[in-house]
Amino acid sequence: MHTVLVVEDERKLRELVRGYLERAGFAVLTTGSGAEAIQLGQTVAPSLVVLDLGLPDIPGEEVARELRTTTQVPILMLTAKSADEDRIRGLELGADDYVTKPFVPRELVLRVQAILRRHDPQEAGGVRSFGDGELVIDEDRREVTVRDTTAALTPTEWALLTALAATPGRVYSRAELINRTRGYEYEGYERTVDSHVKNLRRKLEEDPRVPRIVETVLGGGYRLGLPRDRT
Ligand code: CA
């Protein structure tokens, strides 16, 4: 189940959005404070953040920027009318999409679902190849081939690899990787990500001491080091 963090200081709107998202099957956390949103975004690692631009303590852009320093969580921004157009443009660094108030709650739910589908590696499907065929991921057969040899991955290793392969080169924080691999009997502690990565490297890398496929980004997390091949 996906957890959505709703950040909105208007209580009635916040509860309205919560109700619609819950009925659509999401677990929902709410706050009216930007500071608390930053904290929750980092500790709870939600699947998506619905973020009001006009918050009383910290502007929404600031909250988005702050969240982006530690996570790649998708952000759906709530803005008030076209007066905010300039600010919306400024959001390009942060938000994945935005909805202008007043909005139809059902539309917000559809946008949330669309963003999550885009970000879900399981939805990608098919066979993808990386690094001139060095790594091949077959989502339908749940099979990973590295340098023409099938690698036997545990469900958690599979989940980690497909999460990283969703966007090669993009840095995924440990918290986000935990979030994206939930549902695979995951223990959910950041250090367990490191140990799963270590196992994954042993199975995939030519030299696990000099990893080229699952790269470490200092202070950031991990990324897939191979580019996706054009097919
Ligand atoms: Ca507001």
Write the layout of secondary structure elements.
Elements (H helix, E strand, L loop, with lengths): L2 E5 L3 H13 L3 E5 L2 H10 L4 E5 L7 H11 L4 E6 L4 H6 L6 E5 L3 H15 L7 E4 L4 E4 L4 E4 L2 E3 L3 H11 L8 H7 L9 H15 L9 E4 L3 E4 L7
Parallel strand pairs: 1-2, 1-3, 3-4, 4-5
Antiparallel strand pairs: 6-7, 7-8, 8-9, 10-11
The protein binds calcium ion (CA).
Calcium ion binds next to loops.
CATH superfamily of the largest domain: Response regulator
The dominant shape is elongated
Counted up, domains total 2
Q: Approximately how much beta-strand content do the residues carry?
A: 15-25%
Low-confidence stretches: none
Percent of residues in helices comes to 25-40%
Give the spatial strand order of the biggest sheet.
2-1-3-4-5
State the distance separating the first and last CA atoms.
33 Å
How many helices does DSSP assign? Answer: 8
- Bound ligands, each once: calcium ion
Q: What value does the average pLDDT take?
A: 85
CATH topology of the largest domain: Rossmann fold
Order of helices and strands: EHEHEHEHEHEEEEHHHEE
Strand tally is 11
CATH class assignment of the largest domain: Alpha Beta
CATH-defined architecture of the largest domain: 3-Layer(aba) Sandwich
Largest sheet: 5 strands, parallel
* Structure class: alpha/beta
> Over the alpha carbons, how many angstroms does the gyration radius reach?
19 Å
